[in-house]
Give the backbone structure.
Amino acid sequence: MIDQHTQTNLSDEWLAALQASGYRLTAPLRVLVVLLANSPRALEPVELYDLARREYPRMGLVTVYRTLDKLQELALVQRVHRVNGCHIYLRAAQGHEHVLLCSRCGRAVYFNGDDLSRLSADLAQHTGFTIQEHWLQFLGLCGDCQS
Ligand SMILES: [Zn+2]
Ligand SMILES: [Zn+2]
């Protein structure tokens, strides 16, 4: 799990990465970055917009979409397609981290420790591929959403 200290550092890291890529760190950008980096769940753009307006009333929905695009380009945020066709956004997994996502409320749990080396080796042998990486994501219902 992520403690508050780590989360604070994470939004600072994102802001530094945005600045290094030439983006101006405007007030609305800062608000969006702090909200996303600290969110325990994946958010729809409109949800993020509603949260952000509480802290920055003049927030525009276009700014929200643009910021999500920038963060996705920098691989800080990942987009997940939902069955209903809309997209939700959550912080990207870092290093060898994977995500377990609640398909109802969007709660995201990050974990390490899958061992896919056997499967990977078998696949490589049967297909002749050289496997470079894998993408793994679990979907389910969190404890709160099961009742
Ligand atoms: Zn849930
Ligand atoms: Zn893995």
User: Anything to note?
Assistant: The domain at 4-91 is CATH 1.10.10.10 (Arc Repressor Mutant, subunit A). The chain is about 45% helix and 15% strand. Helices lie at 4-20, 27-38, 45-55, 61-73, 117-127. The two ends are 23 Å apart (CA to CA).
